[in-house]
Design a protein that fits this description.
This protein is mostly helical. Helix content is 53%, strand content 0%. It is elongated and about 80 Å long. The model has no long low-confidence stretch (mean pLDDT 82).
Length: 144
C-alpha cells in the first residue's frame, strides 16, 4: 500500500489530516491509524468532492486497469445489440485492409441441412422423434 496517501489527500483536499478527521467526525488519532484503509480514503474523497476511484488508485488499493476493465464490462452489459452491431460495422468500415473480412449473414433464408446428422436434426427439433405425439403411419404411402 502507498504510504504517501496522506500526502496525496492533503494535496487534493487542501486540508490537513486533522481537518479531514474533524470533517469526518473522527478523532485525529483514529483517523491517522486508519488513513490507508479504503473506507477512510473513500469517505475523505466523497466529503471533498473528489472521485473516490482516484484515491483508491493513489493508495494502490486498485489499479487503473482493473477500473477500466470493470467499467468497460458494465458499459457493454447496458448497450443494446443494435448499438453493438453498429460499432462493429463502424470499426470494420475503418479498416484499411478488408481482405480478411468475411461477409456476415445473420439469417440464411435457404439453409442446407443435407449434411446434418439425424442426431443433430433431432437436437435442433428439425426431425421427429418416435416418442413425439402425432407420429403415426403415413396416410400417403408415396410421400417423399
Amino acid at each position: 500500500m502507498n504510504t504517501n496517501i496522506s500526502e496525496w489527500l492533503e494535496q487534493k483536499t487542501g486540508s490537513t489530516k486533522r481537518q479531514m478527521a474533524l470533517k469526518l467526525g473522527h478523532t485525529p488519532s483514529t483517523f491517522n491509524r486508519n488513513i490507508e484503509t479504503a473506507e477512510v480514503i473513500i469517505a475523505v474523497c466523497r466529503n471533498y468532492g473528489i472521485n473516490p476511484v482516484e484515491g483508491l488508485i493513489a493508495a494502490e488499493i486498485l489499479e487503473s486497469e482493473e477500473i477500466n476493465d470493470a467499467a468497460a464490462e458494465a458499459d457493454l452489459r447496458n448497450i443494446s445489440e443494435i448499438t453493438l452491431l453498429e460499432e462493429v460495422l463502424r470499426r470494420a468500415a475503418e479498416r484499411e485492409d478488408i481482405s480478411e473480412i468475411q461477409p456476415l449473414s445473420l439469417v440464411d433464408k435457404y439453409p442446407d441441412y443435407s449434411n446434418m446428422s439425424v442426431e443433430d436434426a433431432r437436437n435442433y427439433d428439425l426431425a421427429a422423434k418416435e416418442a413425439d405425439k402425432n407420429i403415426g403411419h403415413d396416410e400417403m404411402p408415396n410421400e417423399p
